[in-house]
Design goal:
InterPro entries: Alpha/beta_knot_MTases, rRNA_Methyltransferase, SpoU_MeTrfase, tRNA_m1G_MTases_N. It is a single chain. By secondary structure, the chain is α/β, with parallel strands linked by helices. The protein has a domain of 121 residues: Alpha/beta knot. Strands 3-2-1-6-4-7-5 form a seven-stranded parallel β-sheet, with helices on both faces. Helix 3 links the parallel strand 2 and strand 3. The protein is globular.
Amino acid sequence: MTRGGASPAIRVRRPRELRRQRRPRAHSCWDHLIAAPLWPLHGANLGTLLRTCDAVGACLAVPRLPWVPDALERGNTLRRPSCVHWVNEPLGWLERQREAGSRVVGVELADEAVRLADLPPARVRTVAVLGHERHGIPGEALDLLDLAVEIPMVGGGSSLNVAVAGSLVLYRLAGLL
């Protein structure tokens, strides 16, 4: 507060100024952080997650399901191409990511899970795996995780939707939270 109880003036930065401060040029693939909602249920969540990927400098890996391209197109409010990796077979893709040296982090309620606040920023190529909205990450994919992360909740629900959970984890992995 300033003298007389008035708040200091807040200067809002304009979109052009923000763009100049961020990336000097568009990317073809961030390739350091990848959000992987490999078992999606709702297309709206994919569009929201795509926007978050752009915000944190991540790519999105999605399964080749007939409805996914339309969901991404509807959800891409940025109106420009985004970095999307198409996955034909999720388990095989995850295995190849691990073999290539990526760290695979799953967002899942598990006994061994670390709390979101304790999740360190990604220092190596990291894949953030997000499960099905109702069933979570399939059992056979859990064996491919290097780490599970849990988002603590105090309310009555047991989980957040994929877009919200993925956004929280991506911001943390990107070192922005």
